[in-house]
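Hello, quick one for you while I still have it in my head. A protein chain has come my way and I'm curious about its shape. Can you walk me through what the tokens say about the fold? No rush at all, and the record is pasted right below.
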Amino acid sequence: MMSSSSGTYSGSNGHMCTYETCLLRTSLTVDNFGRRFLGCSRYKVGPKCLFFKWIDNPTCVRGNEAAHFVQQKMDLLQSELQLAHERERAATQVAAEATQMAEIAQDRAAKATERERKFRASSVQAKEIAVRALEQERKCRIALMLSWFFFILVMLFSCVSSSENVGMTKLSLPGGL
């Protein structure tokens, strides 16, 4: 209801709207696309009046047809935007997973590098041990050869010494007779 003298409108629950307290809105419906209207400031909350007044003249039929296409285009753009957001979320998730996988690979590479370093260190130690073993083997061979050499010398001296004793005995026997 409107009280024409004060420019106020009475709504439900005693709420009162005026031209100053109403909100200027724009219609997005296909039939009245782009038309402006005044509406209750409590449009989305609490008790509100049913005040509604068009500010613009009705749109022409061609305008409504164009509005329909504009609305379709807006819907399409909204769908594309939503799809782009979903793709962005998926790409962000893939990037996060790729980052996580890269961190795991980097950790594994670091561990492999550490294993390789330890292997190289143990390989160096094994080579040092092998060199010491070869040196020890060489010393043992020399000792063995020297021991055989001295054995042979002892045997030769023993044979020479025993043949001299045998020869002296033979010599002394005929001369002592």
Notes: The first strand starts at residue 2 and ends at 3.
